[in-house]
Design a protein that fits this description.
The chain is α/β, with parallel strands linked by helices and 256 residues long. It has a single domain, classed as Phosphoenolpyruvate-binding domains (TIM Barrel), CATH 3.20.20.60. The chain has twelve helices and eight strands. An eight-stranded parallel beta sheet has the order 3-2-1-8-7-6-5-4. Helix 11 links the parallel strand 7 and strand 8.
Length: 256
Amino acid sequence: MIENRFKRDLRGARPQVGLWCTIPGGYVAEALAGAGYDWLMFDTEHSPGDPLTVLSQLQAVAPYPVAPVVRPASNDPVLIKRFLDLGAQTLLIPYVQTAGEARLAVQAMRYPPQGFRGVSALTRATRFGRIPGYYQKAWDELCLVVQIETRDSLQRLEEIAAVDGVSALFIGPGDLAGSLGHGGNPGHPSVKAEVLDAIARAARIGKPVGLLTGDAGFAVECVAAGANYVAIGVDVGLLCGRAEQTLSQFRAAVAG
């Protein structure tokens, strides 16, 4: 079996630092794979990505010491099955509101009798049938992360975290801000306070927890509060931001 580096390092002493990837395809993914991040998140919820573009991303980063994480567009057993068969080992499931929804995701990732993941012996996940005993061993290297991103799911955090098979929690500040009445402003003090409280609650029950934030100072606060992993940027945001900065600097220099 291929070791799941992300799952292994979730409980390590050092927080795992990641980057959000929304640009489809393998070329950018490969360029970022050598940048030194611990993990890269390939998004298909808020990007044009799909199973075929994720396949090229997984192939592109495979030679590099970086852990790929995949976010399906929804808590859909069919999408979950497809990404697992492509070789994704860590899935981030969005908009998990209840323990029942968390259990659905767990069952979609597990083979019978514990779950209902469909069986195919000739997939990229099995190295096309070359991993002996994959059916029995697969779950050991799979990692399920569920996304807490509404007021209701915050209230049920401990209940969701207690579902057998949930490896970690992810706090989504953007959607959480909207749910709390501060849409478009994840940096609002009350949103930050709720995020920090959720991290502390997860830490108290021993469940790994993380988030995405472009606010480096807040990311440091979250790590201090107990976050085990954090994404500190989005690929397209870094691209656009640096492009605008370069242009602005050049125009200022020309203007004297």
